[in-house]
Write a structure and sequence with these properties.
Chain lengths: ~120, ~110
Amino acid sequence: NAGVTQTPKFQVLKTGQSMTLQCAQDMNHEYMSWYRQDPGMGLRLIHYSVGAGITDQGEVPNGYNVSRSTTEDFPLRLLSAAPSQTSVYFCASSYRSLAGGVYEQYFGPGTRLTVT
Amino acid sequence: SQQGEEDPQALSIQEGENATMNCSYKTSINNLQWYRQNSGRGLVHLILIRSNEREKHSGRLRVTLDTSKKSSSLLITASRAADTASYFCAPIYNNNDMRFGAGTRLTVKP
């Protein structure tokens, strides 16, 4: 199993440009999430999904869109990049029990994004 | 805020010593998880403790949970230089979102 994969690993954008960060998992996990991590800080939840067709906002959703058309993929879209979105982005997935509980998350290697 | 809050922010110890990190949270949880992050890497899951459990062990790791105080602790015994990393707690609330605090930066000196 490849686990959680993210592409690209590095990206530089100009202000106002748009792009999609890709995330895929091959573990058949229902739960997927996106975080951003700024220097010296913990991870902040952007969006999450409890299954295909279902997404919800986390702590810092503004400026980001997500969709979940398949179990495997959970892309994150930046509609109009801003310097404040310079960060490292992590995607994660988790098994989710029938009762709805979320268990250990598996993280991808991250995408380092710089917006100039 | 629903984030876990780790304490201390930084901890420096000698190899062989024990390291204790604490986490506090605000409201009722489903479970609580601890993660490690090596510099520049993604997070790695260490241990999960359910809300009805009080203590859990995994190798040199011991996690406790006190739901009455809304707090958890992570103890690493006989620390090694390879344990140098940032450690994060993540309370899992009933709506399934998982929020991390700023973490504890642990440095283990050889």
